[in-house]
Amino acid sequence: MKTIYLDNNATTQVDPAVFEAIKPYFTELYGNPSSMHRFGGQVGVTIKEARSSVAKLLNCDSDEIIFTSCGSESDNTAIRSALNSRPDKRHIITTAVEHPAVLSFCKFLEKKENYEVTYLGTDERGRLDLDEYRKAISPDTAIVSVMWANNETGNIHPIEEMAQIARDNGVIFHTDAVQAVGKVSIDLKSSAVDMLSLSGHKLHAPKGVGALYVRKGLMFRPLLIGGHQERSRRAGTENTTGIIALGKACELAAKNMETENTVVSRLRDKLEAGLLAAIPDSKVNGDPENRLPNTTNISFGYVEGEAILLMMDQLGIAASSGSACTSGSLEPSHVLKAMSVPFTFAHGSIRFSLSRFNTEEEIDFVIENLPPIIENLRKMSPFSAEKEGLACTGPGSMQ
Amino acid sequence: MWEYTDKVKEHFLNPRNAGKIEDADGIGEVGSLACGDALTLYIKVDDDNIITDAKFQTFGCASAIASSSALTEMLIGKPVEEAEKLTNKDIAEYLGGLPREKMHCSVMGQEALEQAIKNMRGEAGTKAEHSHEGELICECFGVFDEEILQAIKANDLKSVEDITNFTKAGGGCGKCHEDLERLLAEAQGEAAACATPSATPAYPAEGMTNIQRMHLIESVIDDDIRPALQADGGDIRLMDIDKTSVTVQFMGMCSGCPSSKATLNNLVQGKLREKVDPAITVTEG
Ligand code: FES
């Protein structure tokens, strides 16, 4: 059975060109880039090129890029570095809709190290309130960490504006841009962002590699201390194949950004419109005007997400759910909860995230095959009778 | 993705008896949209009190649907009296097991069944409200202490995580975790308190005076230990008793025997611990 992969915010297919580019570094060119001999040195040169490709995509300087093992490491490093370089400040600002790489770490800092954390809320579309943000900043604030784009809804946050506000107040600004890099254009030269995290496997490089941008001149405290790799800012032998892959992936992302914003977003819109038209009582979560080109998060009222996912899985369709049952917790996604999506809808939410490898036929297949799944599950539901016609009466109405 | 047994998957993908019985004799409704799962169970019962038909409507995840389907299969053809004895464990077992985090789906089945039977007998309406007895513990899922205590006892739950798996309480904001700990301690305390008044003491010398305890030690040595040693040409003499420390002396073949240490530990101390007090230690004087 063919897999229709619509879960690209979870991870992506390694681009065949990326795979080709790294193959020799597993077999023939396996030298250690830190070695003095030429055999290792040539790998060092390729790493340099990779660094430059990453920097180009973000429009920053090569020496502002630190390679890490993943987005989470980049996020943790950024926050820890900011706190360690400003030991007198005890306040952190983040949002309630961050990825656990930031959210759980902030909760840890709050609980175990007595930091004070402000979690900015959102409106029902997942938009942040800039006034609330401005008010939250205090002389004690060490760092603001806000994701560029949300992984569940695709919402894009006003990062440039928020970074500028932080800078005006002398506060370090970090953004977890794991979902945004490669999908939206980022120009760090003209922005006030101090640190930015990205992850390779979200943009068609393999898993296990990430990067952290640290603005030149910003005081930096490494998380991993040991060898002199990454100019002593991140010890540990380089994941050479990962880094080279990331470089290639960034190069391709720069080229394909146009496709992401036209072809991919058109397919996404087609999928969304097709499902909304065919399935009564379904609605999009998030801010349709301001979101990633590849993501849509749709709630199907009166059905439960895991059941939908497993039924889709039978047909080879892979997506994600914000339902509690898939996550190991019992409550629906913290993002949908922060947006006050009614339980009725939150439990049955499905995230479709596309990539340039998806095709029109795949989207047609989903539009054709998902409605009967929802219909069957609804037929089985005790709520279906009361909801004859299943007309959506708006958020909150059926809690 | 959860690890489901083939049987769970089979019942989820091809649910048996999904739907409604229009002229049902008993209906049981549990759960709610807000909680993320809900089940309505319909039963039809004949004059001989046999369940001739059962159907369900479920809103929920794969294991909720599979549990409901399994439950109806288990019910059809069973006398009500027998059906009444079904527990959530039976439902989970029928499915070859459920992930522990999903046990509450089987609990929902059991609750719906109880409710349907009550409804059939005219003892209740169709909808099982949460017991609402006592104190509201988990605000996120509206679970009261009675229900939690009952789940702890029925399923021998040992941790907050267990409680969440079986009742959902504690699965949200986590604010109620301290209360859940308290209920666990309470339930365990009750179990301990229940054990104490039992007629048999925990060990033979429990509650004895010092003199009684000394006599008991003497008689165990005379009746259970000495004959065994004498059979091998040895003997033993009690020298001192100080609370639980007993000093003895080996005589005859036993004195100076290379395995006297083993005899002391295994036979002498072992017997005294078994027949008098498990805290006894025996040394050679
Ligand atoms: S009150 Fe129990 S989990 Fe929130």
UniProtKB/TrEMBL annotation, chain A:
Belongs to the class-V pyridoxal-phosphate-dependent aminotransferase family. NifS/IscS subfamily. Keywords: Iron, Iron-sulfur, Metal-binding, Pyridoxal phosphate, Transferase. It is an enzyme of class 2 (transferase). Homodimer. Residues 4-364 form the Aminotransferase class V domain. Catalyzes the removal of elemental sulfur atoms from cysteine to produce alanine. Seems to participate in the biosynthesis of the nitrogenase metalloclusters by providing the inorganic sulfur required for the Fe-S core formation. Its EC number is 2.8.1.7. InterPro entries: Aminotrans_V_dom, Aminotrans_V_PyrdxlP_BS, Cys_deSase_NifS_bac/arc, Cysteine_dSase, PyrdxlP-dep_Trfase, PyrdxlP-dep_Trfase_major, PyrdxlP-dep_Trfase_small. It comes from the Bacteria. Pfam families: Aminotran_5. It catalyses: (sulfur carrier)-H + L-cysteine = (sulfur carrier)-SH + L-alanine. SUPFAM superfamilies: PLP-dependent transferases (SSF53383). This is Cysteine desulfurase. It comes from Pseudodesulfovibrio portus. Its cofactor is pyridoxal 5'-phosphate.
UniProtKB/TrEMBL annotation, chain B:
Residues 3-123 form the NIF system FeS cluster assembly NifU N-terminal domain. Coiled coil: none annotated. Residues 136-186 form the BFD-like [2Fe-2S]-binding domain. InterPro entries: BFD-like_2Fe2S-bd_dom, BFD-like_2Fe2S-bd_dom_sf, FSCA_dom_sf, N_fixation_NifU, NIF_FeS_clus_asmbl_NifU, NIF_FeS_clus_asmbl_NifU_C, NIF_FeS_clus_asmbl_NifU_N. Keywords: 2Fe-2S, Iron, Iron-sulfur, Metal-binding, Nitrogen fixation. Residues 217-282 form the NIF system FeS cluster assembly NifU C-terminal domain. It comes from the Bacteria. Pfam families: Fer2_BFD (PF04324), NifU (PF01106), NifU_N (PF01592). Its cofactor is [2Fe-2S] cluster. Belongs to the NifU family. May be involved in the formation or repair of [Fe-S] clusters present in iron-sulfur proteins. This is Nitrogen fixation protein NifU. It comes from Pseudodesulfovibrio portus.
